[in-house]
Structure formats: C-alpha cells, structure tokens
Amino acid sequence: MILKQNEKDGISKREAAKLAGVDPNSVQNWRTLYIKTGIEGLMKHQKTGFKPSVFNAIDHQKLETKLNDPQNGLQGYVELKDWIEKESGKIFNYNTLLYYCIRNFKSSVKVTRKSHAKKDQNEVDTFKKTSDESAKI
User: What is the mean pLDDT of the chain?
Assistant: First the structure.
C-alpha cells in the first residue's frame, strides 16, 4: 500500500519499512514478489507450517510409559533410541528423539553413577546408620 501510494514520486525500501514498522528486507521481498506475481502472489498464503511429527500416537505412548517407569534401566538417550527403534521398527535421528522427549515429557539426561560390583550392602547400611548419628552431633 505504501509503495503504491508513493508510486509516482518513489520511496526507498528503508522509508517504506519505517512507515510499515517492518524490516527493510521484508519490503524488498514483498516488492519483488509483487513485480513477479502481482497482487495475487502477495495475497496467497505461502506458509507451510510445521513438519508432522515422526512419532505417531503409539510411539508417543510407548516413550511416555518407558520414561515414567522407575525401573526402566535406561542409561541415556542412546539406549532409549535403540529401544524405540526396536519397538517401532523405524529409524529415528538422535536429536529428534532428544528434543521430542524434552518437549513432550520434560525429560533430561540423568544418568546414575554406577555402583561398584563388589559393594557389600551390609556395610552400606552400617555406613548410613553411623552417618546419621555423626551428623546429629
């Protein structure tokens, strides 16, 4: 509209951008589009939107169940990726799975420290009991 109003005298893209409250490159893009396709091209909706998710409802449910299971035994997203690929029969990108889980399940990479193989549970219990006693003193 601004360009059309100033058609006789002309107006720079910077001045038009300032009047419209947009970036000068947007004005240039709109002008080029108008020259190539006319008003129909400007009015046409060209947004494609977001890509559909690679995870369907069944995959989503499986992931949710696995991530909310306290006994799942996963060491991280690599194991989760291997597990869901085996369950669904599809291949997933690591980052796709990572960000999907963070966005949908608020998950994070938390890996517990490995326990020593020769650890004696009785000594652990004794240590915990004496730790509580010494902390009170």
Answer: 82
